Amino acid sequence: MKKILLVGLVFCLFALSTFAQDSSSDTKSKVTVKLHVGNLASRAKESDLKAFFNRAGVEVTSAQILKKNVGGQGRSFGLVEVDIEQAENAVNLTNGKQFMGRALVINIVATDRQKVEKSKNASTPPPTTVPTPAPEPTAVVSPSPVVAPTCKF
Question: Is the pTM of this model over 0.70?
Fold first, then answer.
């Protein structure tokens, strides 16, 4: 009898721990957006860019620096991926700030701008309005024509 109880207890504990692991994996995945980082110094590295945003208090998911040759001159810009809830704050905290001797120009990538707007609208509850009571119906008395009964003899 003790063995059956012990086996049952072990089975229950195993089932509970498996359930706890499964439910923890259902956590909400983060939605991210990309920020365009313009006016980068050509010597900037991805690690430098991540560190700059981290110092500003913005958690960076990924950073990428792209270089293109325009008119014989190399131009650098970056893409920084951040959590959607931090996107506008990240732009406000870093746009125009000095990085390696240059003032950065930070914008939310156009394709992600709609995601940010939807996120703001979804997180802001609609304004509550107190319904106004309907006006009391008023009795309208209209004179009705008086019809005299007709009698036929």
Answer: no
